[in-house]
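Example for tutorial group B:
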């Protein structure tokens, strides 16, 4: 069953967060994210314009969890 856009985005962010925690920006690769998420590399780029966008979204998600995103 195909993921909807929201589910795919959440999955990409969760995987990206893990990759960043394990090895920083050097570890963040679209192909790795796509393989682990079960989507195509193109889908990663349809959800986020580039890997910097993925990184920014992960950071915003973390700030949101900390309650400082809207300050």
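The residue assignment follows.
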């Amino acid at each position: 069953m195909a993921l909807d856009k929201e589910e795919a985005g959440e999955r990409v962010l969760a995987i990206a967060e893990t990759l960043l925690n394990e090895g920083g920006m050097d570890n963040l690769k679209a192909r790795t994210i796509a393989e682990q998420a079960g989507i195509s590399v193109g889908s990663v780029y349809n959800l986020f314009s580039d890997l910097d966008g993925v990184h920014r979204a992960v950071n915003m998600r973390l700030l949101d969890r900390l309650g400082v995103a809207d300050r």
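The chain has one domain: 5-66. Compare this with the pattern of hydrophobic and polar residues in the output above.
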